[in-house]
Amino acid sequence: MHLTPDANAITRVAESIGAHLGQEEAEQYRPFLLDLLRLVDQFMQERTVTSPPPMLFPERGPGYRPGLDEDPYRAWLWKCDVGGTGAGLLAGKRVSFKDHISVARIPQVFTTQAMEGFIPEVDATVVTRVLAAGGNVIGKHMMNGFVGDYGSPVNPHNPAHITGGSSSGSGAALAAGEVDISFGGDQGGSVRLPAAHCGLVGLKPTYGLVSHFGAGFGAEMTVDHIGPMARRVEDVAAALQAVAGYDPLDPRQRREVPESIDVLSGLDAGVKGLKIGLLREGFTEPIQPEVVEANLEAARILEQAGAEVTWISVPEHAQTDAVYQTLSLEGAMALFDAGFYGTGYVGYYPQSTITAIGRLWHDRTDLLPARSKLNLIAAEFVRQTYQGGAYAKAQNARAGFVAAFDRALSSVDLLAMPTSHTVAPAVQPVATDPRQAIDDNLSRNWIVTRMAYNTKPTNYTGHPALAVPCGKIGGLPTSIQLVGRHFEDGLLLRAAYAFQQAVDWDAYTKVEPVTAGEPVGAAI
Protein backbone atom coordinates (compact mmCIF):
# COMPACT_ATOMS: atom_id res chain seq x y z
CA MET A 1 0.00 0.00 0.00
CA HIS A 2 1.31 3.48 -0.89
CA LEU A 3 -0.09 6.84 0.17
CA THR A 4 -0.24 8.81 -3.08
CA PRO A 5 -3.34 11.01 -2.88
CA ASP A 6 -4.33 13.22 -5.79
CA ALA A 7 -5.54 16.80 -5.46
CA ASN A 8 -9.18 15.74 -5.03
CA ALA A 9 -8.32 13.41 -2.17
CA ILE A 10 -6.27 16.15 -0.53
CA THR A 11 -9.17 18.61 -0.62
CA ARG A 12 -11.52 15.98 0.88
CA VAL A 13 -9.19 15.18 3.76
CA ALA A 14 -8.49 18.86 4.36
CA GLU A 15 -12.23 19.54 4.49
CA SER A 16 -12.68 16.81 7.12
CA ILE A 17 -10.32 18.67 9.50
CA GLY A 18 -11.78 22.09 8.79
CA ALA A 19 -9.16 23.25 6.26
CA HIS A 20 -10.52 24.44 2.94
CA LEU A 21 -8.24 24.07 -0.06
CA GLY A 22 -9.08 24.84 -3.65
CA GLN A 23 -7.98 22.54 -6.47
CA GLU A 24 -5.00 24.68 -7.44
CA GLU A 25 -3.90 25.07 -3.82
CA ALA A 26 -4.17 21.31 -3.28
CA GLU A 27 -1.87 20.76 -6.26
CA GLN A 28 0.68 23.04 -4.55
CA TYR A 29 0.45 20.98 -1.36
CA ARG A 30 0.72 17.65 -3.13
CA PRO A 31 4.51 17.24 -3.66
CA PHE A 32 5.23 18.31 -0.08
CA LEU A 33 2.54 15.97 1.25
CA LEU A 34 3.92 13.04 -0.75
CA ASP A 35 7.34 13.77 0.69
CA LEU A 36 5.91 13.61 4.22
CA LEU A 37 4.09 10.36 3.51
CA ARG A 38 7.04 8.68 1.81
CA LEU A 39 8.83 7.72 5.02
CA VAL A 40 5.60 6.38 6.53
CA ASP A 41 5.19 4.16 3.47
CA GLN A 42 8.80 3.08 3.76
CA PHE A 43 8.44 2.21 7.44
CA MET A 44 5.25 0.22 6.87
CA GLN A 45 6.97 -1.88 4.17
CA GLU A 46 9.97 -2.73 6.38
CA ARG A 47 10.20 -6.02 8.25
CA THR A 48 10.57 -4.35 11.61
CA VAL A 49 11.04 -6.71 14.57
CA THR A 50 8.43 -6.30 17.32
CA SER A 51 8.42 -7.95 20.74
CA PRO A 52 4.93 -9.01 21.79
CA PRO A 53 4.37 -10.17 25.37
CA PRO A 54 5.30 -13.82 25.99
CA MET A 55 2.49 -16.34 25.44
CA LEU A 56 1.87 -19.22 27.82
CA PHE A 57 0.71 -22.48 26.21
CA PRO A 58 1.44 -21.36 22.63
CA GLU A 59 0.53 -24.79 21.29
CA ARG A 60 -3.19 -24.15 21.33
CA GLY A 61 -5.88 -25.15 18.89
CA PRO A 62 -8.31 -22.70 17.30
CA GLY A 63 -11.38 -24.00 19.14
CA TYR A 64 -14.87 -23.88 17.63
CA ARG A 65 -18.19 -22.04 17.61
CA PRO A 66 -20.84 -24.10 19.43
CA GLY A 67 -24.30 -24.66 18.00
CA LEU A 68 -27.51 -23.91 19.89
CA ASP A 69 -27.79 -27.56 20.93
CA GLU A 70 -24.62 -27.02 22.97
CA ASP A 71 -25.36 -23.40 23.84
CA PRO A 72 -29.07 -23.12 24.74
CA TYR A 73 -28.65 -19.78 26.54
CA ARG A 74 -26.71 -18.21 23.62
CA ALA A 75 -23.81 -17.40 25.93
CA TRP A 76 -20.82 -18.49 23.85
CA LEU A 77 -19.13 -17.02 20.80
CA TRP A 78 -16.27 -19.50 20.84
CA LYS A 79 -15.12 -22.50 22.84
CA CYS A 80 -11.53 -23.62 23.28
CA ASP A 81 -9.25 -25.56 25.63
CA VAL A 82 -6.10 -23.74 26.74
CA GLY A 83 -3.97 -24.38 29.82
CA GLY A 84 -5.39 -25.98 32.90
CA THR A 85 -2.27 -27.90 33.81
CA GLY A 86 -0.18 -27.70 36.95
CA ALA A 87 -0.87 -26.11 40.32
CA GLY A 88 -1.98 -22.62 41.26
CA LEU A 89 -4.83 -20.60 42.72
CA LEU A 90 -7.07 -21.45 39.77
CA ALA A 91 -6.03 -25.06 39.21
CA GLY A 92 -9.06 -27.10 38.18
CA LYS A 93 -11.16 -24.00 37.43
CA ARG A 94 -12.87 -23.49 34.08
CA VAL A 95 -12.36 -19.84 33.13
CA SER A 96 -13.89 -17.78 30.32
CA PHE A 97 -13.74 -14.21 29.05
CA LYS A 98 -16.04 -11.60 27.58
CA ASP A 99 -15.13 -11.25 23.90
CA HIS A 100 -13.59 -7.77 24.31
CA ILE A 101 -10.67 -9.53 26.06
CA SER A 102 -8.12 -10.98 23.62
CA VAL A 103 -7.08 -14.63 23.77
CA ALA A 104 -4.31 -15.17 21.25
CA ARG A 105 -5.09 -17.45 18.29
CA ILE A 106 -8.77 -17.67 19.32
CA PRO A 107 -11.20 -15.77 17.04
CA GLN A 108 -12.50 -12.46 18.39
CA VAL A 109 -15.45 -10.69 16.76
CA PHE A 110 -16.71 -8.15 19.35
CA THR A 111 -20.20 -9.47 18.45
CA THR A 112 -20.11 -7.99 14.94
CA GLN A 113 -20.01 -10.05 11.75
CA ALA A 114 -17.85 -7.33 10.23
CA MET A 115 -15.01 -8.73 12.38
CA GLU A 116 -15.45 -12.35 11.24
CA GLY A 117 -12.09 -14.00 10.64
CA PHE A 118 -10.13 -11.73 12.99
CA ILE A 119 -7.68 -13.55 15.27
CA PRO A 120 -5.69 -11.54 17.87
CA GLU A 121 -1.96 -12.07 18.19
CA VAL A 122 -1.56 -11.52 21.95
CA ASP A 123 -3.14 -12.63 25.19
CA ALA A 124 -4.58 -9.98 27.47
CA THR A 125 -2.68 -9.78 30.76
CA VAL A 126 -5.65 -11.28 32.65
CA VAL A 127 -5.51 -14.28 30.32
CA THR A 128 -1.77 -14.74 30.89
CA ARG A 129 -2.23 -14.54 34.66
CA VAL A 130 -5.17 -16.96 34.67
CA LEU A 131 -3.06 -19.47 32.75
CA ALA A 132 -0.10 -18.91 35.07
CA ALA A 133 -2.40 -19.65 38.04
CA GLY A 134 -3.42 -22.99 36.54
CA GLY A 135 -6.79 -21.97 35.13
CA ASN A 136 -8.27 -23.75 32.10
CA VAL A 137 -9.43 -21.18 29.52
CA ILE A 138 -12.49 -22.68 27.86
CA GLY A 139 -13.94 -19.90 25.74
CA LYS A 140 -15.20 -16.43 24.87
CA HIS A 141 -18.64 -14.98 25.53
CA MET A 142 -21.32 -12.96 23.83
CA MET A 143 -21.51 -9.33 24.91
CA ASN A 144 -24.24 -6.77 24.51
CA GLY A 145 -23.63 -3.13 23.77
CA PHE A 146 -21.18 -3.09 20.85
CA VAL A 147 -23.10 -4.47 17.87
CA GLY A 148 -24.84 -7.73 18.78
CA ASP A 149 -25.02 -9.46 15.39
CA TYR A 150 -25.15 -12.87 17.06
CA GLY A 151 -28.26 -12.35 19.16
CA SER A 152 -28.54 -11.87 22.91
CA PRO A 153 -28.06 -14.35 25.75
CA VAL A 154 -31.07 -15.27 27.85
CA ASN A 155 -31.30 -15.70 31.60
CA PRO A 156 -31.07 -19.32 32.82
CA HIS A 157 -33.29 -18.42 35.80
CA ASN A 158 -36.03 -17.56 33.30
CA PRO A 159 -35.31 -17.40 29.54
CA ALA A 160 -38.11 -14.85 29.16
CA HIS A 161 -35.76 -12.35 30.84
CA ILE A 162 -32.43 -10.76 29.95
CA THR A 163 -29.12 -11.40 31.66
CA GLY A 164 -28.07 -7.77 31.89
CA GLY A 165 -25.14 -6.38 30.00
CA SER A 166 -22.71 -5.96 28.66
CA SER A 167 -21.01 -9.07 30.09
CA SER A 168 -24.20 -10.90 29.23
CA GLY A 169 -22.75 -14.18 28.00
CA SER A 170 -20.57 -14.48 31.10
CA GLY A 171 -23.68 -14.10 33.27
CA ALA A 172 -25.64 -16.74 31.39
CA ALA A 173 -22.82 -19.33 31.27
CA LEU A 174 -21.99 -18.92 34.96
CA ALA A 175 -25.61 -19.17 36.10
CA ALA A 176 -26.02 -22.30 33.98
CA GLY A 177 -22.94 -23.88 35.59
CA GLU A 178 -21.03 -24.09 32.31
CA VAL A 179 -17.98 -22.27 33.69
CA ASP A 180 -16.54 -21.56 37.16
CA ILE A 181 -15.12 -18.07 36.71
CA SER A 182 -15.61 -15.51 33.98
CA PHE A 183 -13.96 -12.15 33.44
CA GLY A 184 -16.18 -9.37 32.14
CA GLY A 185 -15.74 -5.70 31.39
CA ASP A 186 -17.41 -2.99 33.48
CA GLN A 187 -17.83 0.49 32.00
CA GLY A 188 -21.02 1.44 33.85
CA GLY A 189 -22.06 -1.74 35.61
CA SER A 190 -21.39 -4.34 32.93
CA VAL A 191 -20.00 -6.91 35.39
CA ARG A 192 -22.30 -6.13 38.31
CA LEU A 193 -25.61 -5.96 36.41
CA PRO A 194 -25.31 -9.44 34.83
CA ALA A 195 -24.20 -10.67 38.25
CA ALA A 196 -27.27 -9.09 39.85
CA HIS A 197 -29.69 -10.45 37.28
CA CYS A 198 -28.18 -13.94 37.12
CA GLY A 199 -27.61 -14.62 40.84
CA LEU A 200 -23.83 -14.21 40.76
CA VAL A 201 -21.03 -12.46 42.61
CA GLY A 202 -19.47 -9.80 40.37
CA LEU A 203 -16.60 -7.46 41.22
CA LYS A 204 -15.67 -4.17 39.64
CA PRO A 205 -12.21 -3.82 41.20
CA THR A 206 -10.52 -0.61 42.23
CA TYR A 207 -9.61 1.29 39.07
CA GLY A 208 -6.21 0.08 37.81
CA LEU A 209 -5.92 -2.89 40.17
CA VAL A 210 -6.55 -5.36 37.33
CA SER A 211 -4.58 -4.74 34.15
CA HIS A 212 -6.59 -3.65 31.12
CA PHE A 213 -3.90 -4.58 28.59
CA GLY A 214 -5.39 -6.57 25.75
CA ALA A 215 -8.97 -5.50 26.34
CA GLY A 216 -10.96 -2.79 24.60
CA PHE A 217 -14.58 -1.81 24.36
CA GLY A 218 -14.80 1.64 22.88
CA ALA A 219 -15.80 3.41 26.08
CA GLU A 220 -14.02 6.16 27.99
CA MET A 221 -10.76 4.65 29.22
CA THR A 222 -10.93 6.15 32.72
CA VAL A 223 -14.21 4.42 33.60
CA ASP A 224 -13.32 1.03 32.08
CA HIS A 225 -12.55 -1.99 34.28
CA ILE A 226 -12.07 -5.76 34.00
CA GLY A 227 -13.55 -7.83 36.83
CA PRO A 228 -14.21 -11.45 37.83
CA MET A 229 -17.64 -13.07 38.17
CA ALA A 230 -18.53 -16.41 39.76
CA ARG A 231 -21.27 -18.25 41.61
CA ARG A 232 -19.39 -18.08 44.92
CA VAL A 233 -17.40 -15.40 46.72
CA GLU A 234 -14.30 -17.54 47.22
CA ASP A 235 -13.96 -18.07 43.46
CA VAL A 236 -14.15 -14.32 42.80
CA ALA A 237 -11.53 -13.79 45.53
CA ALA A 238 -9.19 -16.40 44.04
CA ALA A 239 -9.64 -14.95 40.56
CA LEU A 240 -8.88 -11.43 41.77
CA GLN A 241 -5.80 -12.53 43.71
CA ALA A 242 -4.54 -14.44 40.66
CA VAL A 243 -4.73 -11.52 38.23
CA ALA A 244 -4.47 -8.29 40.25
CA GLY A 245 -1.38 -6.14 40.48
CA TYR A 246 0.98 -3.91 38.58
CA ASP A 247 1.48 -4.57 34.87
CA PRO A 248 4.08 -2.60 32.88
CA LEU A 249 1.95 -3.14 29.75
CA ASP A 250 -1.01 -1.18 31.16
CA PRO A 251 -0.70 2.61 30.85
CA ARG A 252 -3.83 3.16 32.99
CA GLN A 253 -2.20 1.99 36.19
CA ARG A 254 -0.87 4.55 38.69
CA ARG A 255 1.97 4.27 41.16
CA GLU A 256 -0.29 3.13 44.04
CA VAL A 257 -1.17 -0.16 42.28
CA PRO A 258 0.55 -2.92 44.30
CA GLU A 259 2.64 -5.67 42.76
CA SER A 260 0.13 -8.23 44.04
CA ILE A 261 -2.62 -8.60 46.63
CA ASP A 262 -3.78 -11.17 49.18
CA VAL A 263 -7.55 -11.33 49.68
CA LEU A 264 -7.87 -15.03 50.47
CA SER A 265 -6.06 -15.21 53.80
CA GLY A 266 -8.54 -12.85 55.48
CA LEU A 267 -11.65 -13.95 53.62
CA ASP A 268 -13.18 -15.72 56.63
CA ALA A 269 -12.47 -12.96 59.18
CA GLY A 270 -16.15 -12.05 59.42
CA VAL A 271 -17.84 -8.67 59.77
CA LYS A 272 -17.78 -8.19 63.54
CA GLY A 273 -17.03 -4.51 64.20
CA LEU A 274 -17.39 -3.42 60.59
CA LYS A 275 -19.49 -0.31 59.96
CA ILE A 276 -21.81 -0.53 56.95
CA GLY A 277 -23.62 2.54 55.64
CA LEU A 278 -26.87 2.09 53.73
CA LEU A 279 -26.66 4.76 51.04
CA ARG A 280 -29.89 6.78 50.99
CA GLU A 281 -29.38 7.94 47.40
CA GLY A 282 -29.10 4.32 46.32
CA PHE A 283 -32.69 3.59 47.29
CA THR A 284 -34.39 6.42 45.39
CA GLU A 285 -37.55 5.90 43.35
CA PRO A 286 -38.46 4.35 41.02
CA ILE A 287 -37.43 1.10 42.66
CA GLN A 288 -39.09 -2.29 42.98
CA PRO A 289 -40.35 -2.58 46.61
CA GLU A 290 -39.24 -6.20 46.87
CA VAL A 291 -35.69 -5.13 45.95
CA VAL A 292 -35.68 -2.68 48.86
CA GLU A 293 -37.00 -5.37 51.19
CA ALA A 294 -34.34 -7.89 50.11
CA ASN A 295 -31.54 -5.36 50.57
CA LEU A 296 -32.72 -4.33 54.03
CA GLU A 297 -32.99 -7.98 55.01
CA ALA A 298 -29.40 -8.53 53.81
CA ALA A 299 -28.32 -5.59 55.97
CA ARG A 300 -30.09 -7.13 58.97
CA ILE A 301 -28.27 -10.43 58.38
CA LEU A 302 -24.92 -8.63 58.30
CA GLU A 303 -25.92 -6.80 61.48
CA GLN A 304 -26.74 -10.10 63.18
CA ALA A 305 -23.28 -11.32 62.11
CA GLY A 306 -21.69 -8.46 64.06
CA ALA A 307 -21.64 -5.48 61.70
CA GLU A 308 -22.92 -2.05 62.70
CA VAL A 309 -25.44 -0.80 60.12
CA THR A 310 -26.53 2.81 59.75
CA TRP A 311 -27.94 5.12 57.09
CA ILE A 312 -25.61 7.53 55.29
CA SER A 313 -25.91 10.11 52.52
CA VAL A 314 -23.63 10.97 49.58
CA PRO A 315 -25.56 13.52 47.46
CA GLU A 316 -22.96 13.26 44.70
CA HIS A 317 -24.13 9.71 44.02
CA ALA A 318 -27.35 11.12 42.55
CA GLN A 319 -25.43 13.74 40.59
CA THR A 320 -23.14 11.37 38.70
CA ASP A 321 -25.33 10.79 35.63
CA ALA A 322 -24.56 14.15 34.00
CA VAL A 323 -20.79 14.07 34.48
CA TYR A 324 -20.56 10.38 33.59
CA GLN A 325 -22.50 10.90 30.38
CA THR A 326 -20.42 13.93 29.40
CA LEU A 327 -17.19 12.02 29.97
CA SER A 328 -18.34 8.82 28.28
CA LEU A 329 -19.62 10.48 25.12
CA GLU A 330 -16.49 12.41 24.27
CA GLY A 331 -14.21 9.70 25.64
CA ALA A 332 -15.72 7.15 23.27
CA MET A 333 -15.21 9.56 20.37
CA ALA A 334 -11.56 9.98 21.39
CA LEU A 335 -11.07 6.21 21.17
CA PHE A 336 -12.92 6.22 17.87
CA ASP A 337 -10.28 8.63 16.59
CA ALA A 338 -7.27 7.15 18.37
CA GLY A 339 -7.59 3.46 17.53
CA PHE A 340 -9.30 1.59 20.38
CA TYR A 341 -6.30 1.41 22.71
CA GLY A 342 -5.51 5.10 22.88
CA THR A 343 -2.24 6.82 22.08
CA GLY A 344 0.59 8.61 23.82
CA TYR A 345 2.00 5.88 26.06
CA VAL A 346 5.18 3.84 25.72
CA GLY A 347 4.24 0.19 25.50
CA TYR A 348 3.03 -2.59 23.26
CA TYR A 349 0.09 -1.81 20.97
CA PRO A 350 -1.90 -4.83 19.65
CA GLN A 351 -1.53 -3.73 16.02
CA SER A 352 -3.83 -6.26 14.37
CA THR A 353 -6.70 -5.49 16.77
CA ILE A 354 -6.24 -1.75 16.33
CA THR A 355 -6.27 -2.10 12.55
CA ALA A 356 -9.33 -4.37 12.50
CA ILE A 357 -11.37 -2.16 14.83
CA GLY A 358 -10.22 0.97 13.04
CA ARG A 359 -11.43 -0.43 9.73
CA LEU A 360 -14.80 -1.26 11.30
CA TRP A 361 -15.28 2.14 12.92
CA HIS A 362 -14.08 4.32 10.07
CA ASP A 363 -15.00 2.31 6.98
CA ARG A 364 -18.06 0.45 8.25
CA THR A 365 -19.65 2.84 10.73
CA ASP A 366 -23.05 2.13 9.20
CA LEU A 367 -22.79 -1.42 10.57
CA LEU A 368 -22.86 -0.12 14.15
CA PRO A 369 -26.24 -0.24 15.94
CA ALA A 370 -28.35 2.91 16.00
CA ARG A 371 -27.50 3.73 19.63
CA SER A 372 -23.75 3.55 18.95
CA LYS A 373 -24.09 5.92 15.99
CA LEU A 374 -26.30 8.19 18.11
CA ASN A 375 -23.63 8.40 20.82
CA LEU A 376 -20.89 9.18 18.29
CA ILE A 377 -23.02 11.91 16.69
CA ALA A 378 -23.81 13.38 20.12
CA ALA A 379 -20.13 13.25 21.05
CA GLU A 380 -19.15 15.13 17.91
CA PHE A 381 -21.75 17.83 18.66
CA VAL A 382 -20.34 18.15 22.19
CA ARG A 383 -16.77 18.32 20.92
CA GLN A 384 -17.55 20.92 18.27
CA THR A 385 -19.57 23.01 20.73
CA TYR A 386 -17.18 22.96 23.70
CA GLN A 387 -13.88 22.26 21.87
CA GLY A 388 -12.79 19.65 24.40
CA GLY A 389 -13.83 21.76 27.38
CA ALA A 390 -16.69 19.44 28.38
CA TYR A 391 -14.37 16.43 28.54
CA ALA A 392 -11.79 18.43 30.50
CA LYS A 393 -14.40 19.65 33.00
CA ALA A 394 -15.73 16.11 33.48
CA GLN A 395 -12.23 14.81 34.18
CA ASN A 396 -11.42 17.70 36.52
CA ALA A 397 -14.66 17.26 38.47
CA ARG A 398 -13.72 13.69 39.38
CA ALA A 399 -11.64 14.71 42.40
CA GLY A 400 -14.66 16.27 44.10
CA PHE A 401 -16.81 13.17 43.56
CA VAL A 402 -14.01 10.91 44.81
CA ALA A 403 -13.60 13.08 47.88
CA ALA A 404 -17.34 12.89 48.64
CA PHE A 405 -17.29 9.08 48.68
CA ASP A 406 -14.00 9.08 50.60
CA ARG A 407 -15.59 11.26 53.32
CA ALA A 408 -18.45 8.81 53.66
CA LEU A 409 -16.02 5.89 53.75
CA SER A 410 -14.06 7.57 56.54
CA SER A 411 -17.08 7.17 58.86
CA VAL A 412 -18.11 3.69 57.64
CA ASP A 413 -16.12 0.80 56.23
CA LEU A 414 -18.54 -0.10 53.44
CA LEU A 415 -21.48 1.42 51.61
CA ALA A 416 -24.46 -0.75 50.67
CA MET A 417 -27.32 -0.29 48.22
CA PRO A 418 -29.23 -2.28 45.59
CA THR A 419 -27.10 -3.25 42.60
CA SER A 420 -30.12 -2.73 40.35
CA HIS A 421 -33.50 -1.19 41.21
CA THR A 422 -35.37 -4.10 39.57
CA VAL A 423 -34.90 -7.75 38.82
CA ALA A 424 -33.96 -8.74 35.28
CA PRO A 425 -36.21 -7.03 32.71
CA ALA A 426 -38.27 -9.14 30.36
CA VAL A 427 -36.97 -9.86 26.87
CA GLN A 428 -38.83 -7.74 24.35
CA PRO A 429 -39.81 -9.05 20.90
CA VAL A 430 -37.67 -7.90 18.00
CA ALA A 431 -39.55 -5.39 15.87
CA THR A 432 -40.15 -6.40 12.26
CA ASP A 433 -40.70 -2.82 11.10
CA PRO A 434 -37.27 -1.25 10.38
CA ARG A 435 -38.21 2.16 11.80
CA GLN A 436 -39.56 0.57 14.97
CA ALA A 437 -36.40 -1.54 15.29
CA ILE A 438 -34.27 1.62 15.12
CA ASP A 439 -36.48 3.35 17.68
CA ASP A 440 -36.22 0.36 20.03
CA ASN A 441 -32.44 0.34 19.71
CA LEU A 442 -32.15 4.08 20.32
CA SER A 443 -34.29 3.80 23.45
CA ARG A 444 -31.98 1.15 24.99
CA ASN A 445 -28.87 3.28 25.24
CA TRP A 446 -26.47 1.98 27.88
CA ILE A 447 -25.11 5.47 28.67
CA VAL A 448 -28.48 6.75 29.91
CA THR A 449 -30.12 3.55 31.18
CA ARG A 450 -31.77 3.80 34.58
CA MET A 451 -30.68 0.22 35.24
CA ALA A 452 -27.12 1.44 35.85
CA TYR A 453 -28.06 4.29 38.23
CA ASN A 454 -26.31 2.65 41.21
CA THR A 455 -23.38 1.20 39.31
CA LYS A 456 -22.10 4.12 37.19
CA PRO A 457 -20.87 6.29 40.10
CA THR A 458 -18.04 3.92 41.08
CA ASN A 459 -16.92 3.57 37.47
CA TYR A 460 -16.33 7.32 37.64
CA THR A 461 -14.76 7.44 41.12
CA GLY A 462 -12.79 4.19 40.79
CA HIS A 463 -13.92 2.75 44.14
CA PRO A 464 -14.30 -1.05 44.24
CA ALA A 465 -17.88 -2.33 44.06
CA LEU A 466 -19.22 -5.84 44.49
CA ALA A 467 -22.61 -7.28 43.49
CA VAL A 468 -23.82 -10.00 45.89
CA PRO A 469 -27.00 -12.10 45.52
CA CYS A 470 -29.43 -11.36 48.38
CA GLY A 471 -32.69 -13.04 47.42
CA LYS A 472 -35.15 -13.94 44.68
CA ILE A 473 -38.27 -12.17 43.50
CA GLY A 474 -40.66 -14.28 41.45
CA GLY A 475 -37.86 -16.73 40.77
CA LEU A 476 -35.43 -14.02 39.57
CA PRO A 477 -32.33 -13.03 41.59
CA THR A 478 -31.87 -9.66 43.25
CA SER A 479 -28.62 -8.22 44.55
CA ILE A 480 -26.99 -5.93 47.11
CA GLN A 481 -23.98 -3.83 46.07
CA LEU A 482 -21.11 -3.19 48.47
CA VAL A 483 -18.72 -0.28 47.85
CA GLY A 484 -15.41 0.23 49.64
CA ARG A 485 -12.30 2.36 49.86
CA HIS A 486 -9.74 2.28 47.06
CA PHE A 487 -7.68 -0.93 47.10
CA GLU A 488 -9.77 -2.43 49.92
CA ASP A 489 -11.38 -4.90 47.53
CA GLY A 490 -10.57 -7.65 50.02
CA LEU A 491 -12.84 -6.08 52.64
CA LEU A 492 -15.79 -6.21 50.22
CA LEU A 493 -15.10 -9.89 49.56
CA ARG A 494 -14.75 -10.58 53.29
CA ALA A 495 -18.17 -9.04 54.04
CA ALA A 496 -19.73 -10.88 51.10
CA TYR A 497 -18.23 -14.19 52.25
CA ALA A 498 -19.65 -13.68 55.75
CA PHE A 499 -23.05 -13.05 54.18
CA GLN A 500 -22.72 -16.12 51.97
CA GLN A 501 -21.97 -18.26 55.04
CA ALA A 502 -24.94 -16.84 56.98
CA VAL A 503 -27.70 -17.57 54.43
CA ASP A 504 -29.12 -20.38 52.33
CA TRP A 505 -26.90 -19.50 49.37
CA ASP A 506 -28.45 -22.00 46.99
CA ALA A 507 -31.86 -20.41 47.56
CA TYR A 508 -30.44 -17.13 46.23
CA THR A 509 -28.38 -18.50 43.35
CA LYS A 510 -29.56 -21.91 42.16
CA VAL A 511 -31.30 -22.09 38.78
CA GLU A 512 -34.73 -23.66 39.33
CA PRO A 513 -37.10 -25.02 36.67
CA VAL A 514 -39.16 -22.20 35.16
CA THR A 515 -42.88 -22.27 35.87
CA ALA A 516 -45.39 -21.08 33.30
CA GLY A 517 -46.65 -17.53 33.61
CA GLU A 518 -46.03 -13.94 32.71
CA PRO A 519 -42.53 -12.45 33.00
CA VAL A 520 -42.03 -10.75 36.39
CA GLY A 521 -39.28 -8.28 35.45
CA ALA A 522 -39.67 -4.75 34.21
CA ALA A 523 -40.00 -4.42 30.45
CA ILE A 524 -37.10 -2.83 28.58
Report on the structure:
By secondary structure, the chain is of the alpha/beta class. It has two domains: 7-45; 76-509, Alpha-Beta Complex (Amidase signature (AS) enzymes). It has 16 helices and eleven strands. An eleven-stranded mixed beta sheet has the order 1-3-2-4-6-5-10-11-9-7-8, with helices on both faces. Helix 4 packs parallel to helix 5 (192-198). The relative contact order is 0.13. Residues 516-524 have low confidence and may be disordered.
Please summarize what this structure is.
The chain is an alpha/beta fold.
Considering the chains and any ligands shown, give keywords for the structure:
524 residues; alpha/beta; Amidase signature (AS) enzymes; 2 domains; eleven-stranded mixed sheet; 16 helices
Strand and helix map with partners:
Layout: H1 7-16, H2 23-45, E1 76-83, E2 94-98, H3 125-132, E3 136-141, H4 168-175, E4 181-186, H5 192-198, E5 201-204, E6 225-230, H6 233-243, E7 275-279, H7 289-304, E8 308-312, H8 320-338, H9 351-363, H10 370-386, H11 389-396, H12 398-411, E9 414-418, H13 434-443, H14 456-461, E10 465-473, E11 476-483, H15 489-502, H16 505-509
Parallel strand pairs: 2-3, 2-4, 7-8, 7-9
Antiparallel strand pairs: 1-3, 4-6, 5-6, 5-10, 9-11, 10-11
